[in-house]
Design brief:
The chain is α+β, with helices and mostly antiparallel strands. It is built from two helices and two strands. The protein has helices spanning about 25-35, 35-40; strands spanning about 45-55, 60-65. It has a two-stranded antiparallel sheet with strand order 1-2. A hairpin with a 7-residue loop joins strand 1 (about 45-55) and strand 2. The two termini are about 20 Å apart.
Length: about 70
């Protein structure tokens, strides 16, 4: 078993258009504030997201565990 720790400091930007039947404010909340709850449920390769430091505000550090091959 090998443990790899990757620390990325910076901004990652993805831009795409997808029709959505939910209001923009609700979608923003789900994609930013509830990311740690939402993504492990809808993306099979994401095993979990945990807070390392902070509580979701500016400066928060989250650890995302991704399982390869799924």
């Amino acid at each position: 078993s090998t443990t790899i720790i990757i620390i990325i400091m910076g901004v990652v930007t993805h831009e795409y258009d997808t029709p959505a039947d939910v209001p923009p404010t609700r979608l923003f909340k789900a994609m930013t504030l509830d990311f740690h709850n939402l993504f492990p449920k809808i993306v099979d390769s994401i095993h979990g997201v945990v807070f390392i430091e902070g509580s979701g505000g500016p400066g928060t550090i989250k650890k995302m565990t991704i399982i390869e091959g799924q």
